[in-house]
């Protein structure tokens, strides 16, 4: 049975164990996923619920389903990777990125209750993809685009979490270090079917 899934159901699917597909959620949420053919109840105790192949496909497609809207023309935006018309590289772009990062640190100082600049502020939590991308670009990481391999930052259905993809393990690890230093909590995961590694990163609160 197909049909729109609630935000809670999407979170249950996204939070499934990346290897086994085991689900955690309320009985109502799990029953709804079973009814839609996205999960099944194991016949043996403790009767856990697991994603079906269709459920795995939904989970893998989830990061592409929720994208942040593009900024208005002429407004600075960090490169998230894969833009059709990325801004030109060069000294002017470097200055823009540096200025944007310093402005973000000042915004943290002004809006975080304790004036801390080592963790994200409210604006970043409302613009997760752009904020994570700015942290990466400001640290010198190269985004994907224009025939070049690099990072890609994408929205996810999970609250306060972005997915970061990179062309190789070394780049992915370097992105994780950068995000952690910028006040994010990154964790490395694998896609269940393709085994492709990616980061799931959330703004640190304390």
Polypeptide structure, described:
The chain has 206 residues and is α+β, with helices and mostly antiparallel strands. It folds into two domains: 7-65, no CATH class; 91-203, no CATH class. It contains seven helices and six strands. It has helices at 7-14, 27-35, 53-65, 91-111, 122-126, 128-138, 169-181, and strands spanning 39-41, 49-51, 152-155, 162-165, 184-190, 197-203. Helix 4 crosses helix 6 (128-138). It is elongated, with a radius of gyration of 19 Å. The termini are far apart. The model is unreliable at 63-74 (pLDDT under 50).
Summarize the structure.
With 206 residues, this protein is of the alpha+beta class.
- Strand arrangement in the largest pleated sheet: 3-4-6-5
The number of domains is: 2
Helix content: 25-40%
Oligomer: single chain
Which regions have little confidence, pLDDT < 50, spanning 5+ residues?
63-74
Class from helix and strand fractions: alpha+beta
Element order: H for helix, E for strand? HHEEHHHHEEHEE
Radius of gyration: 19 Å
Proportion of strand residues: 5-15%
Please, what is the average pLDDT? Answer: 84
- Major sheet summary line: 4 strands, antiparallel
Total of helices: 7
Q: What is the overall shape?
A: elongated
How many DSSP E strands?
A: 6
- Tell me the span between the first and last alpha carbons: 42 Å
Write the layout of secondary structure elements.
Blueprint: H1 7-14, H2 27-35, E1 39-41, E2 49-51, H3 53-65, H4 91-111, H5 122-126, H6 128-138, E3 152-155, E4 162-165, H7 169-181, E5 184-190, E6 197-203
Antiparallel strand pairs: 1-2, 3-4, 4-6, 5-6
Helix pairs in contact: 4-6
Region (Disordered): 1-20
């Amino acid at each position: 049975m197909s049909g729109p899934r609630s935000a809670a159901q999407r979170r249950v699917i996204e939070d499934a164990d990346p290897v086994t597909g085991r689900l955690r959620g309320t009985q109502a949420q799990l029953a709804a996923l079973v009814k839609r053919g996205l999960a099944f109840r194991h016949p043996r105790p403790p009767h856990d619920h697991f994603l079906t192949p269709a459920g795995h496909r939904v989970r893998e497609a989830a990061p592409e389903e929720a994208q942040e809207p593009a900024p208005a023309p002429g407004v600075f935006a960090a490169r998230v990777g894969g833009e059709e018309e990325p801004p030109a590289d060069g000294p002017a772009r470097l200055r823009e990125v540096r200025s944007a990062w310093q402005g973000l640190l000042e915004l943290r100082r002004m809006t975080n209750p304790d004036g801390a600049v080592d963790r994200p502020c409210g604006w970043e939590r409302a613009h997760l993809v752009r904020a994570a991308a700015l942290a990466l670009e400001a640290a010198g990481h190269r985004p994907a685009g224009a025939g070049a391999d690099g990072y890609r930052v994408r929205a996810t259905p999970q609250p306060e979490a972005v997915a970061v993809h990179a062309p190789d393990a070394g780049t992915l690890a370097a992105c994780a270090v950068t995000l952690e230093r910028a006040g994010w909590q990154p964790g490395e995961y694998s896609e269940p079917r393709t085994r492709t590694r990616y980061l799931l990163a959330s703004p640190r609160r304390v």
